[in-house]
Design goal:
Elements lengths: L1 H12 L1 H17 L5 H21 L1 H8 L2 H6 L13 H7 L22 H11 L6 H16 L4 H7 L13 H17 L6 H21 L3 H25 L5 H25 L14 H15 L17 H6 L2
Length: 329
């Protein structure tokens, strides 16, 4: 019942995000681990009943939305021709420490894929951990690759963005990648004592090859800088994990030190990018940016009509109704 209630409420809250949710409900059914075929069928039947109940209870929202011009203009079931919009190198660079935010997209919903080099190390440790079921590791790896491919390939980006086409891949659904990365990292840390020393060496070697390849493909120091700093942090995580496996520290001590090192890595990226605010074209204030135009418009209105209230500065293109405008204040 709770699934049907919240799924129905999601249509009232945001119809577009609910489309994305619907796509990932199907992925949940596909990637969930079932005890038996009967358990799989039972789960599908339960979800199907919940979906039907939700659709019926929210039909008052769904029918006008689906039949509107706005829906037909923005949402399509015709998949775009598959095309690689960004190189894998550019995407991998966004995973590195101190990467420039929103580097490879001109949109505000760009490729903000940074999850820390620590999670990249933990991803390999997760995949090599024999204490975690093999089917579980394979499913997680496939799902993560599918989600990440949406930032590079047109077709999967169209699907994960709720059947909405963007000229350049964006990540409306990017928070799901972050949640999945956190889940994988948690499982890797909680099972770290079961990892073999050989696989720690292999993890370090794979990360080293990946990062050095990025350095060699870089066009200059600015492009290579995220990879160089990430290499230093990778070495720190690698040595720390080896010390732990040699039983030179307790599991609690290892987790605390790993967490502190991770926080330091985050600060390295955050502080650097904060000091560079305004230097990149995505954050550089100019007369062309929407925010500056909104500010100038508001200043003009208030100077000519003191005390007036500005409810919205968007255009008709935003498809705002008087009701939405008043609800947003």
């Amino acid at each position: 019942p709770s699934f049907a209630i919240f799924y129905a409420l999601s249509f009232y809250a945001n119809f577009y995000i609910t489309l994305i949710t619907s796509v990932f409900i199907i992925f949940y059914l596909l990637f969930h681990t079932y005890d038996s075929t009967e358990n799989l069928i039972e789960s599908i039947v339960k979800v199907a009943k919940g979906v039907v109940c939700s659709l019926l209870s929210s039909a008052i929202i769904i029918i006008p939305s689906v039949t509107s011009n706005a829906f037909s203009n923005e949402i399509s079931l015709e998949f775009p021709t598959g095309a690689v919009k960004h190189s894998i190198f550019d995407y991998i660079r966004q995973l590195m420490t101190r990467s420039i935010p929103d580097k490879i997209s001109i949109y505000g919903l760009g490729i903000d894929a940074y999850v820390g080099i620590a999670l990249l190390v933990l991803l390999f440790l997760y995949l090599f951990n024999g204490n975690i079921r093999l089917t579980e590791r394979i499913k997680m790896a496939v799902l993560l690759l599918l989600l990440c491919s949406g930032s590079i390939v047109n077709t999967t980006n169209f699907l994960f963005n709720g059947f909405k086409f963007y000229q350049n891949p964006t990540q409306v659904y990017g928070y799901i990648i972050s949640f999945l990365a956190i889940l994988i990292a948690y499982e890797a840390i909680m099972n770290i004592r079961f990892i073999r020393v050989a696989f720690i060496h292999i993890t370090g070697l794979l990360c080293f090859i990946l990062i050095v390849s990025g350095i060699l493909l870089s066009t200059g120091y600015e492009s290579a800088s995220p990879f160089i700093i990430s290499l230093e942090f990778t070495f720190a995580y690698y040595v720390l994990t080896l010390i732990f496996k040699n039983k030179s520290m307790t599991p609690s001590c290892y987790k605390v030190l790993f967490a502190l090192l991770f926080v330091f890595e985050i600060c390295t990226s955050f502080i650097y990018n904060t000091t560079k605010l305004g230097e990149y074209f995505t954050t550089l204030p100019s007369s062309r940016t929407k925010q500056v135009k909104q500010y100038e418009t508001a200043r003009y209105i208030l100077s000519n009509h003191p005390g007036s209230k500005i409810l919205i500065t968007g255009s008709i293109y935003d498809k705002k109704t008087p009701l939405l405008t008043s609800l947003e204040g």
